[in-house]
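Researcher: Please predict.
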Amino acid sequence: MKMNDLHLKPEGKAMQAAATPVAIIGAGDIFPAYVAGLAQFGNLRLVGVADARPEAAAAQSQAQAVPAFSVDELLAGEAQIIINLTPPQAHRAVGEAVLKAGKHLYTEKPLAGSFADGAALMELASAQGLRIGCAPDTFLGGAGQLARTLVDGGQLGRIVAGQATMMERGPDDWHPNPAFFYRPGAGPLMDMGVYYLTQLVQLLGPITRVNGMAHTSWPIRQIPRGPRQGESIQVETPTHLVAGLEFEQGAFITLSTSFDVWKHKSSHIELYGERGSLVLPDPNQFGGALESCEADGDWQSQTPQVFTGRHRGLGVADMAEALRSGRQHRANGEMALHVLEAMDAVLRAAEKKAPVSLRTRCARPDPVNPGFAESLQFQAKPAAQEQSA
């Protein structure tokens, strides 16, 4: 089966179930993108926003036409799934409040600011009989699922090695409030490397052991432009990290993440199999072209056609449908906790200058199957709206 056909051959007519009410805590810079993304899925209904800063919720309410509530009001309301868009260091506290209110939790990446906090959230969810979902959900996009088809199809043979690279200059000159990117729980590994690790885990399965090296190139950074131009940022987490990842299926992957690099020419992700190689696009995006080759043959390019735009909230829509049907959702807490432990272990391995074995494991999420888009009542945006979202 070609990936381009994957969403276009439904198993049967999708049930037009009532839309699941969802709400958001956190009215920051990412909020408008979630509003636009969630609107693409007919199985979701966004019913409100709240923020610890009432003025922020009020501003986004007016701009996005979403009702604003206090946090307590939102937790007591009709939403079945609460989406947490607060900074990583607040993920545990907000997540615990959501779970204690009897709501399912979907949180922005990473699951928490530390592995210990993430494990505590998972334990609470289990005790409450509730689910946790977690970004990134970009692996559910066309590019990640096309890669899954190629890896699982066997044309490349067993994946034995690979490399992944996320290196940039950092968010200093484009984000209006970049300081939190340089605090514990963020940095290039936790903030951006999480996309790469999640993609690798969905393709290859769990990681068993990691090694790492890390350093901070500049302990103080100065914001070059924007509303905070000239302000200094105290750097509290490593800004250049190189990790070695050993996967349970036998592959060894090197991962480089950095906020200290102006430009480079490395691919985002390359996988090397016994019978061929695969180059993946940016895992922070849902789409993009892939290149693959078998043995010493020529490179072949493939571009998926479905779920290639801006679809933030795709994981939430899948979670809502999974709750209805009783299956496991794909962007699930178990995988998010495993990825979080891997990142935490890389930092510890760098600090102790020795490998660290991981305690958690997770199953690879099910690949997207025929009828997926229909089951989520997905309505693609016109191209012009995609560009402006």
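Model: The chain has eleven helices and 16 strands.
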